[in-house]
Design a protein that fits this description.
The structure is a single chain. By secondary structure, the chain is an alpha/beta fold. The protein has two domains: 204 residues, Response regulator (Rossmann fold), CATH 3.40.50; 134 residues, Response regulator (Rossmann fold, 3-Layer(aba) Sandwich), CATH 3.40.50. It is 41% helix and 21% strand. The protein is built from eleven helices and 16 strands. The strands form four sheets. An eight-stranded mixed β-sheet has the order 1-3-2-4-5-6-15-14, sandwiched between helices. Strands 8-7-9-10 form a four-stranded parallel β-sheet, with helices on both faces. α2 crosses α10 and α3 runs parallel beside α4. The radius of gyration is 20 Å and the shape is elongated. It starts with a helix and ends with a helix. The chain binds alpha-L-rhamnopyranose. The site of alpha-L-rhamnopyranose has 13 residues, from α8. Alpha-L-rhamnopyranose (RAM) binds next to α8.
């Protein structure tokens, strides 16, 4: 049954990729997340009634964000609900997103969906958007409850945080120094996961594990690389790195491989199979976790459409159908309300080959 579900998800993911690449006349979604605004109007419309759905991801140059954008676009297009506008700032900052949100307000868009680069700093501009009648939701990385109508969460934050500590502990035999290589210091998703990692580490069974540092690579490849190198230099006895970001994982995997540190320093966290297959195969990362980023965007797209047509308001208990993901219900989150995608999935040598071409 488990295998069947996995194959189903795999084939759905593949179908999405194929249809997204074949279905749009211009470029594949991967190349559409850039600092430029790219819009795709539905074939038969140009009316002022056309709904506009904007997605603002954290930053460019991150394949995870590109997959998220691909899913969002696929959802709106398969439903024929309106125009898709994909935006991504060059840097993962709140300032850059504020500018993009101001532009979207001026364009009188219908919905703004975003992966927030800061939980609180976007509140004034997102409040302005909602006061102008624009529906606002966050996905992947939440903005605070007052800044959104609902959040699309990839998986339970507690589970995501705890499972990474359990994994590294098993990998290093429950003993030694570990470090965390995160994204930006303001990222709500990573910060929440790190809180849960710290709570897990309070268990006496981890008494021999020492968390020496939380470093921030800002979801930039170069900075994540230099932060990994700095950790290795500052802590020569370091036994493991947890990186709860796909950009950090890929950078750390390369550094540990290039330095020949397989078995000496282990790596786990949240990685993209396409970027991590090499490091799972060579043993640098014995196993890791993630969810389907295409599905995060796809669920965000359906939530955006449900907000736009009034099927949901963002209140707890609201229900809607999210295309091939089926019926979803809005639940209470730690902060505001949210829609949950599913469980994190474990990627290891036995299954990485079948997933690396999906996302
Ligand atoms: C990075 C981003 C994203 C996060 C994944 C796991 O790509 O920080 O927000 O969800 O990692």
């Amino acid at each position: 049954m488990k295998k069947f579900k996995k194959l189903l998800a795999l084939s759905l993911g593949t179908t999405l990729l194929v249809s997204s690449l074949a279905g749009c006349a211009s470029k594949p979604a991967e190349s559409q997340a850039s600092t430029d605004t790219k819009t795709e109007a539905p074939a038969n419309t140009a009316s002022s009634e056309t709904k506009k759905f904007v997605l603002i991801v954290k930053s460019t140059g991150n394949p995870y964000n590109e997959k998220e954008a691909e899913g969002f676009k696929a959802a709106i297009e398969e439903a024929g609900a309106g125009e898709v506008i994909l935006k991504a700032p060059a840097e993962p900052t709140a300032e850059a997103q504020i500018q993009m949100i101001e532009e979207a307000i001026a364009q009188k868009v219908t919905v703004i969906a975003l992966a927030g680069n800061d939980p609180d700093a976007l509140q004034p501009v997102l409040t302005k958007a909602m006061n102008a009648g624009i529906k606002v939701l966050s996905l992947d990385s939440s903005v605070n409850a007052a800044s959104r109508m609902v959040h699309v969460n990839q998986a339970d934050p507690e589970r995501i945080g705890r499972v990474q500590v359990q994994a590294i502990s098993e990998m290093i035999g429950g003993k030694g120094q570990i470090a965390i290589l995160s994204a930006t210091s303001q990222a709500a998703n990573q910060n929440l996961w790190i809180e849960w990692m710290k709570k897990e580490l309070e268990d006496p069974k981890y008494a021999d594990i020492e968390l020496v540092k939380v470093a921030y690579g800002d979801d930039l490849r170069d900075k994540s690389t230099s932060e990994t190198e700095a950790l290795l230099k500052a802590y020569p006895d370091l036994r493991g790195i947890i990186s709860p970001t796909t950009v950090g994982m890929a950078a750390a995997g390369k550094v540990l491989t290039d330095k020949g540190l397989v078995d000496k320093v282990v790596l786990t966290g949240l990685g993209l199979p396409s970027e991590m297959a090499e490091y799972i195969t060579n043993g640098v990362c014995p196993w890791m976790y993630l969810w389907n980023p295409i599905d995060v965007g796809y669920l965000g797209g359906y939530a955006a459409m449900a907000l736009a047509d009034g099927t949901i308001t963002g209140a707890q208990g609201n229900k809607f159908t999210a295309g091939r993901l089926g019926e979803k219900e809005i639940i209470t989150a730690g902060d505001g309300t949210e829609i949950m995608l599913g469980d994190p999935f474990k990627f290891e040598p036995a299954n990485i080959e079948e997933w690396k071409s999906v996302y």
